[in-house]
Amino acid sequence: MLTSKRCICILLLLFMAITADAQQSPIVTLKALLNSVDQKAPTLITDSAAILIRKAQAAETRNNWLPDLTLNYQADVGTSNNVTGPYFGLGVVPSSSGGIHNTNVTTALSDNLGIAALNWEVYNFGKYGAQNKVANADINVEQNQYAQSKYDLRAYTISNYLQLLRLQDFLGIQYRNIQRTEQILRSIMSLAKSGVRAGVDTSIAQAELSKARLNYIELNDQLKQVQLQLSAVSGLPYQSIEPDTTIEKTLIAKSSAYLFPADTVNHPIINYYRSVYENNLQRESLVKKLYNPKISVLAAAWGRGSSVDASGNYNSLSSGYDFQRGNYLVGIGISYNLFDLRRMQLKEHTQKASTDYAYKKLQEQQQLLAISANQADVEMQTALSRLKEIPNQLKAANDSYRQNLSLYRNGLSDIITLDAALNILYRAETDYMQAKYDYSNALFRKAITENQVDAVLNLLK
Fold first, then answer.
1. Which of 255, 323, 404, 438 could link 383 by a cystine bridge, Cβ 3.0 to 4.6 Å?
2. May I ask which residue range the UniProt record assigns to the signal sequence (predicted)?
3. DSSP 101
4. Predicted confidence (pLDDT) per residue in 241-250, tens digit
């Protein structure tokens, strides 16, 4: 009978353990989170649409060479009563009538006119090619801006993921602090009942316990806020974002992982600013060719009819709607505005200033990345040194707390001394947690700066 009860108890315990494990959210690795961000981040979806706009604009630019072929037709009723004389056609010219009578004639006539006109700018000394190169450079800038947005978002995600690990560690420390404070309170209450300790010790312990619980609540809220931020960029439910707690341990165990070489060839930030600089160079070339002479092929064919014949007789209006005469005209024209030379010089000066600015921004980003990588190296070395020393502090603080707790229980110490020992242990644990975070954060910051995030992620397999 006893054996059966034991078996039932064991089975119940196993069932409870399996159920509790099933209810736990699966771990979301950093690599899986970054993949989700790459696919679902709203800002990246928007930026990818901007690339399509640039590609459409480039297709539009490539078709600038197409000729203008204009078809016109009109049928009119009116008078043809004018005097001969030249004029500038400023604005709308309502009629091309001519003076064929010595007197003022107001008799109505009809006419029609059909025109097919071709204007084709066949050669402009490289302007079309320069426009296409600028359009392609615009696409390249947009694509590199997308890559930079992706790079920045990955950095943001990694930073928040490490912050999530830090807060989880902090919650664990706070939970242990609550347990220790509850243990102290139970000891005080037991000693107070027997008259060994004063009731004021109970009040002090209860205040410390309440403070520890409030800190735990605040930390839990901070953790949820970080989960919400990661959910916004990854599309994952925030409750399901549980970080892999083995990351810091793995990275610390492989402290030589930061010796990877910097990727300066395909760095998203450098590529973006380099593409902006190259885009400005292409625009300089376009400015030089924008004001070149233009060689055009001109052609026109037209037919015309009128109710007035060659002798000046006004026939029926219906006779004016048949084409009676046909003509064509073909020619080659060249045009150049002499004052465009000055305009080109001014525009070129402005564009050169813009190009120089883009080049200086490129140099600035290269220097900033180099400085950031050096800072990360220093921070990693400092964090490693702290990680080597903190275990001594942690062991000493833990021993001090246990000794003071034992002395207090035996009436050989007071609550103030015990509370101080508890705070020293709490600080030692938080120092260790912070050192682990500082190292991991510095390592990833160096990896991000040198575009070697994938190299670090491969260490976490």
1. 438
2. 1-22
3. S
4. 999 988 888 8
Q: How far apart are CA 230 and CA 237, in angstroms?
A: 9
Spatial distance between the Cα atoms of 102 and 335, rounded to a whole number of angstroms: 41
Q: Range(s) for CATH 1.20.1600.10 in the chain?
A: 26-64+125-293+339-460
Helix or strand holding residue 230 (H, E) = helix 199-234
331, burial (CB in 10 Å: exposed 0-12, middle 13-18, buried 19+)? exposed
* pLDDT single digits (tens) 412-446: 888 889 889 999 999 999 999 999 999 999 899 98
Q: What is the DSSP string of 37-82?
A: HHHH-HHHHHHHHHHHHHHHHHHHHHTTTPPEEEEEEEEEEE----
Beta bridge partners, 239, equal: none
Report d(CA 245, CA 14) in Å as an integer: 25
Contacts of 239 (CB under 8 A, 6+ apart): 25, 227
Say how many residues make up the chain: 461
| Alpha carbon separation from 156 to 199, 438, 439 (Å, rounded) | 51, 16, 17
Paired tokens of 173: 């420390």
Condensed to tens digits (0 to 9), the pLDDT of residues 38-70 reads 999 999 999 999 999 999 999 999 999 999 999
CB neighbour list of residue 9: distance below 8 Å, 6 or more residues apart:
none
Residue 322 CA to residue 111 CA, distance in Å, equals 8
Q: Is the pTM of this model over 0.85?
A: no
Mean pLDDT of the region 167-190: 90
Higher-confidence position of 331 and 24: 331
What whole-number distance in Å separates Cα of residue 140 and Cα of residue 148?
Answer: 12
3-state secondary structure at position 87: coil
Q: Residue 104 corresponds to which tokens in the numbers above?
A: 């003022």
d(CA 52, CA 178): 56
Spatial strand order of the sheet with 68-78 comes to 68-78, 109-123, 294-306, 325-335
N-to-C CA span, the chain: 49
Q: How far apart are CA 184 and CA 18, in angstroms?
A: 33
For domain 26-64+125-293+339-460, give the CATH number.
Answer: 1.20.1600.10
Distance CA 372, CA 318 (A): 86
Average pLDDT over residues 5-30: 52
